């Protein structure tokens, strides 16, 4: 029992480290101004349309996704997944902290903005890998994809693509309707959609060895 408790503590600590890395990745993507990752595009646009910070709108979106999971799964919903709520609160707070922490970074040239964008993509990918390796709870976005897969006979990869595309379409529509220009969705969004997953898969290889050695 003591060994299992220690392993669980280690896994939650690893999750918190992953959330911190991911939050800084989101902050760098925002600072670059070339478009955020698909999952962050809607919270970012909502932060521009409301008095709320991007961290707060991220929390709001996660709460909605948790409620949708419950509606979809009903009796099949595992109450342990409600841990997604405190995880969302932590991640949203870390996102706001990260945006504040790097506010002094100023790059105006297009190539240097791409540097920030690449840093953001790499950090998000590493953070995702840490989250996967921790293997304790998913973020609400991934939880929503899993809930759809449990409800309908669809493949995870296809649902993930459709989910991300839906967020991008909603973010783009709101941006064009109310800001009269495209915000949060640009070439960096496409790059993030392609390379975040690739980065995470590369980091997963050494992280699996780390988990076998230190998390069991």
Number of domains: 1
Q: For the terminal residues, how far apart are their CA atoms?
A: 12 Å
SSE order = HHHHHHHH
Determine the fraction of residues in helical runs and give it as a percent range: over 70%
Number of strands: 0
Mean pLDDT: 94
Largest sheet: none
Describe this structure as you would to a colleague:
The protein has 216 residues and is mainly alpha-helical. It is built from eight helices and no strands. The chain has helices spanning 2-32, 38-49, 54-73, 84-101, 110-134, 140-151, 156-179, 187-214. The mean pLDDT is 94.
Helix/strand layout:
Layout (H helix, E strand, L loop, with lengths): L1 H31 L5 H12 L4 H20 L10 H18 L8 H25 L5 H12 L4 H24 L7 H28 L2
Helix pairs in contact: 1-4, 1-5, 2-3, 2-7, 3-4, 3-6, 5-8, 6-7
List its traits.
79% helix, single chain
Short description:
This protein has one domain (2-214). With 216 residues, the protein is mostly helical.
